[in-house]
Write a structure and sequence with these properties.
By secondary structure, the protein is α+β, with helices and mostly antiparallel strands. α3 packs across α5, α19 packs parallel to α23 and α22 packs antiparallel against α23. The protein is elongated. The protein has 23 helices and 22 strands. The strands form five sheets. It has a five-stranded antiparallel sheet, with helices on both faces. The chain has a five-stranded antiparallel sheet with strand order 7-6-10-9-8. Strands 12-11-15-14-13 form a five-stranded antiparallel sheet. The protein folds into five domains: 190 residues, PAS domain (Beta-Lactamase); 175 residues, GAF domain (Beta-Lactamase, 2-Layer Sandwich); 102 residues, PAS domain (Beta-Lactamase), CATH 3.30.450; 81 residues, Helix Hairpins (Orthogonal Bundle), CATH 1.10.287; 150 residues, Heat Shock Protein 90 (2-Layer Sandwich), CATH 3.30.565.10. The chain binds adenosine-5'-diphosphate (ADP). The site of adenosine-5'-diphosphate has 20 residues, from α22 and α23.
């Protein structure tokens, strides 16, 4: 391979690549040179520079001194290379310096001045002690490296954090190489400083992120994860301890949940224990409060001097100085915060806060996921208990309305194997109770994606027994798309059987009741005829043969007449009673006031003879059989007059009250009253509390009232204080809107 022509400037550039940190093998490969050649260039370069940098001897004046004993051509070549190297070093953006064998600095370039904020003129001739007087550990490290180089000349590199112009610490890679003087002895070293802070930070960030990611992937619970996350920050960055804070919505405050410390220090342990002790109330003051309130990270350079840091005294005692906190966030929501402490003052580090914010967001997602998983487990457990404890079964249908799932309770309850139903639509299996049009209605409802309730389906078990199911279902939508139905089923066979028995009994009852009514009506009607005969022939007997009979016979005859009259009355009342059911008219809107007026007209004779005083509220329109309503008022007011106190004229009031859907009518009197044990009995046929001598009557009046009110689907009852008066109440439905 034809060798390339290397001039001094190109050689110097190659050597500088090495000073910037590129490895020897990489350089040789790149420029296609042999390692021996590269090393020779480097030696030359370094010794040239060393010579040029001797204090107070500018390069231009150096010529004579260096030239001694050199052939002219060599000298010229060498002087040219030297100038190039000097210019390059000066212009180099990385700090470069030279030190003599005794440790005193020989020179440095402009980048060095800027990096450390020190003028080289003021520093030349001084040692590293003076440059880093405030950082003894830096001095020690440099010195150790130099000692090693003096012992073993060559090159050496090491990482170190050093304070720079603004007081902050930077990560550097220090590259040093010895050079020999004209006599061949080691004369000093050249050093180049490469700032690897950014790389370091990327590494640290990656280390933290990597560790956090692993922890999040491996651990299940928040309590397991958080100490590991705190450790990842502290150990990677060299911070002393940390804590995780959470918002406790139920307690209305926030609390320290987990802590971590890198050293076994009792004071730090005590400080962390103190933090964990109580629930803090949200407010304005306080470090964590601020972070939770704003959702922004925060930094305190010195917690012992910051009044916004409430645990400052305890932190000071534990030897803690700087703190930073970052929010654990989920979108706009702040779920908690991480807090870290350093034993020495640390300037606010934007990079760290940014890294922290990213990890805070990651933790927020993790917490949300854990919560979602917990919610899911809970709701699954709820669902399981629900299905385990309920006698109903659960089912699901796909979007084609085919059954996809049926819980085990179905076969348990019904004894029917669900297999033939799976994959089929509901109407694809026989259901004796449902007609084509029933199914069509059900299908239409499902196609409209409507929920349905108590849809009754009769299925037949393999041994031919009818099983009745009641199904409820609701449509399932995912992202607005119809996904099918889900619902529950109940075995209602027992209910159905009971219903059938009840219906049969009811039908039987209605039939026998109407027969009975018919019978009562016919009987009372037909009884009247022979009774009339007894009456008229007794009268005839008295008229024709009265004078032939003695006093006893006449008295016996008057008993017959009286008995017949009473029997006639009883039969008439019975007839009236049975007519309430058989001869009732349809219910129509009628004025209750009109019915009352007619009742009062019918009662005029007894009102006048008793001197009764009757008052009433204004009565409304009601849905009723007018004749029966009149009868109702008449019987109640009639009784109120009849059962008056001997020495007082009766006073009766008809009152009206609005009772929601109903009107409540009340007929009250100041009469003799009724004892409570008779409150029910008096509404039964022929039940009376007095003899006919005391108060006339047959005991049918209230029975008729009850039958009338029953027919109107109302209620009737009495309130009374014995000896003070009675109040008969009955209710009638209000006329619904639209009813005519
Ligand atoms: P009758 O009036 O024919 O006796 P009812 O069926 O009307 O029959 O009444 C039954 C019984 O209820 C009456 O015998 C009476 O003892 C009692 N009663 C009814 N209304 C009143 C009233 N307003 N005050 C006191 N007792 C009454």
């Amino acid at each position: 391979m034809p060798g390339r022509q290397w001039d001094a400037a190109s050689k110097a550039k190659v050597v500088l690549e090495g000073l910037k940190g590129r490895s020897e093998s990489a350089i040789c490969k790149r420029h296609r040179i042999k390692p021996t050649e590269y090393r020779r260039w480097r030696r030359q370069f370094l010794s040239n520079i060393a010579r040029s940098l001797e204090p107070r001897r500018p390069p231009s004046e150096d010529v004579g001194h260096l030239r001694a004993g050199m052939p002219k051509k060599v000298w010229e070549e060498s002087a040219k290379a030297l100038r190039v190297a000097q210019e390059l070093i000066e212009a180099l953006p990385i700090p470069v310096f030279f030190k003599a064998r005794d440790g005193k600095h020989l020179g440095a370039n402009r980048a060095w001045e800027t990096y450390f904020g020190v003028e080289r003129d003021s520093f030349i001739g001084k040692t590293v002690n003076e440059l880093f007087s405030a950082a003894p550990e830096v001095v020690a490290r440099h010195k150790a490296a130099d000692e090693a180089l003096w012992r073993n000349p060559g090159t050496r590199s090491y990482e170190l954090e050093v304070p720079v112009h603004d007081g902050s610490f930077r990560h550097t890679l220090n590259y040093k190489a010895t050079f020999a003087g004209a006599d061949g002895e080691i004369a000093g070293l050249i050093g180049a400083i490469i700032d690897i802070t950014d790389r370091k930070r990327v590494e640290q960030r990656q280390a933290i992120e990597h560790r956090v990611a692993r922890v999040l992937a491996e651990s299940g619970t928040v309590a397991d994860v958080m100490p590991e996350v705190l450790a990842a920050f502290c150990e990677t960055l060299g911070w002393a301890c940390g804590a995780r804070w959470s918002l406790d919505a139920r307690a209305g405050g926030f609390r320290c949940e987990e802590t971590w410390r890198s050293v076994d220090n009792a004071d730090i342990a005590a400080f962390l224990a103190e933090s964990r002790k109580s629930i803090y109330q949200p407010g304005q003051a306080g470090f964590i409060r601020r972070v939770l309130g704003t959702g922004e990270p925060a930094w305190i350079v010195d917690v012992t001097a910051e009044k916004n840091f409430l645990r400052g005294k305890e932190a000071g005692k534990a030897g803690l100085r700087s703190a930073f906190a970052l929010p654990i966030r989920l979108g706009d929501q702040t779920l908690g915060a991480l807090e870290f402490f350093h034993g020495e003052e640390q300037q606010a580090d934007e990079w760290l806060l940014k890294t922290g914010a990213a990890i805070g967001a990651q933790l927020g997602h993790f917490m949300a996921r854990v919560q979602a998983e917990r919610d899911l487990r809970l709701s699954e457990a709820r669902f399981r208990s629900l299905t385990a404890l309920s006698s109903d079964w659960y089912w699901e249908q796909d979007e084609e309305l085919r059954l996809t799932f049926m819980s085990g309770r179905f076969v348990e309850r019904t004894g029917i194997d669900p297999a033939p139903f799976i994959g089929r639509r509901r109407w694809e299996r026989p259901a004796p109770n449902l007609t084509e049009s029933d199914w069509a209605r059900h299908k239409a409802q499902l196609e409209r994606h409507e929920p349905f309730f108590d849809f009754e389906v009769e299925r037949v078990s393999p041994d031919g027994v009818s099983v009745w199911l009641s199904l409820c279902g609701e449509p399932v939508f995912e992202d607005g798309k119809f996904r099918g139905y889900r619902g529950v089923g109940t075995d209602i066979t027992d209910r159905k059987r009971a219903q059938a028995v009840l219906r049969a009994a009811y039908d039987e009852l209605t039939r026998s009741n109407s027969e009975l009514q018919q019978f009562a009506y016919v009987a009372s009607h037909d009884l009247q005829e022979p009774l009339r005969m007894i009456g008229s022939y007794t009268q005839l007997l008295e008229r024709r043969y009265g004078d032939k009979l003695d006093a006893d016979a006449r008295e016996f005859m008057s008993f017959i007449v009286e008995g017949a009259t009473r029997m006639k009355q009883l039969i008439e009342d019975l007839l009236a009673y049975s007519r309430v059911g058989t001869r009732g008219k349809e219910l129509r809107p009628v004025q209750a006031q009109g019915a009352l007026d007619r009742a009062l007209v019918n009662l005029r004779a007894s009102i006048e003879s008793s001197g009764a005083q009757i008052t009433h509220d204004l009565l409304p329109e009601v849905s009723a059989d007018e004749t029966q309503l009149t009868q109702l008022f008449q019987n109640l007011i009639g009784n109120a007059i009849k059962f008056r106190k001997k020495d007082e004229p009766p006073r009766v009031h008809v009152a009206l009250r609005d009772a929601g859907d109903e009107w409540r009518f009340s007929v009250s009197d100041k009469g003799i009253g009724i004892e409570p044990q008779y409150f029910e009995r008096i509404f039964m046929v022929f039940q009376r509390l007095h003899t006919r001598d005391e108060y006339p009557g047959t005991g049918i009046g209230l029975a008729i009232c009850k039958k009338v009110v029953d027919r109107h689907r109302g209620r009737i009852w009495v309130e009374s204080a014995y000896g003070e008066g009675s109040m008969f109440h009955f209710t009638l439905h209000k006329i619904q809107k639209g009813q005519t």
